[in-house]
Amino acid sequence: MEAQKSILILCGGGPAPGINAVVSTVAKVFLKDGYRVIGLHEGFKSLFSENPDVKEFDFDHADRIFSRGGSTLVMSRFKPKNEELNTKLFSENNVKLLVTIGGDDTASSAGRITDYLKEKDIFISNIHVPKTIDNDLPLPDRNPTFGFHSAKDEGVRIGNTTYEDARTSQNWFVMSVMGRTAGHLAFGIATSCHFPMMIIPEMFRENEVTLEKVINLVVSTIIKRKILGINYGVALISEGIFHKLSDEELKKVEVNFTFDAHGHPELGNVSKSHIFNMLLQEKLKSLNIDIKSRPVELGYELRCCRPIGFDLTLCTLLGLGVKEVFDKGLSNCMVSANSRGEITPLFLEDLKNEEGKIPPRLVDMDSEIARLFFDNLHYLTPKDFEKAKEYLVHPEEYYFQSLIN
After folding, report:
1. CB-based contact 198:377 (threshold 8 Å)
2. Residue 356 lies in a domain
3. Burial class for 317, CB neighbours closer than 10 Å (0-12, 13-18, 19+)
4. pTM score > 0.90 for this model?
């Protein structure tokens, strides 16, 4: 007699608000259809272990977790290489579907696993739910990735408190926020909080990014506000700026960075806001400008906050979409929802460019929303140069357009 059919769920990479809503919905909809639902702790690490750490779901557990932050399934960034896959987990539990939640690396690994299992005469489907708070996956219709709006909302809460502190104390804060490649989080937080300056990697187009340019942009907003009689503010800098710095520029930071397997500096090990704030203090001291500034880091505190209503709805829809796509017999695809709430299967090949890579979705600097917000930040323009000479010998060196162009 054939064992009861089951599905297997795992989460890869870092957490994002809404993971539990996806897991809960997937569990509920498959339990309703008579499947066993097995969750896998530690992602692929457990899948390639002789003793995988599993969690059997029932309705009670699924119903308790759907609105919580974090992930009920322990996550891992483990990437399988030459390890031996535990095929018994699939065959002994009669697994019919592997549901993965993560980035494109997680999706690619899941595809390779299903292909390998096929060679062993174990036939399963694989459906992936894309996740990133960076919002840099090129989904159709520029739909957001789940977790982004909740992380932004938490960042706005902290950002508004920080801005109120700046106004109350009449000083400055240098804030840094997550976003390795794209500045969506920084853009969303800075614009929502009415920060006078935000610096994201997309601003520089093809121009070389230097630490001096970044710090001069902060000085530009400080002096502009002084001219306006405003002696406080927050300048927000995306951590993605670090990924655009050359090796020579990174050496100027005088921090012993560690690097990941792809050669990227492991920014989670250092406080970016502290680095930028110290560089700003050195610059202000060299200009004989007496201004107090303090660093604020927005990092891991954004990843496990409770999801807001937008993401709860989106994640529930994506969870239901997993069952919808599975019932249609599709496999090795991602599930997404368009702006009308319709489930759309996506295939990795459809998102790749000519080089075989998935290009990140960036902040569109030519869009009207970007133009309006950047045009209305506080920074020095040529009409300010004469008044700025009270603080700067060469105010033209701090002109916004010349620094980014």
Report:
1. yes
2. no
3. buried
4. yes
Cα 304 to Cα 53, 93, 239, 295, distances in angstroms: 22, 31, 19, 22
- DSSP 8-state code for residue 137: S
252 or 32, higher pLDDT: 32
Average pLDDT for the chain: 91
The secondary structure of residue 230, as a DSSP letter, is -
Rounded Cα distance between 151 and 307, Å, is: 8
Domain count, the chain: 2
140 in a domain, yes or no?
yes
Catalytic member of 104, 134, 153, 311: 134
Q: Give yes or no: residues 293 and 172 share one domain.
A: yes
Same domain, 233 and 245: yes
**CATH number, domain with residue 332:** 3.40.50.450
134 given a catalytic annotation: yes
One-letter amino acid of 278: M
User: Range of 293's domain?
Assistant: 152-303+364-404
The residue written with tokens 């794209």 in the block is: 182
Q: Which range, 198-207, 257-266, 377-386, has the best average confidence (pLDDT)?
A: 377-386
Co-location of 275 and 391 in the same domain: yes
pLDDT at 184: 96
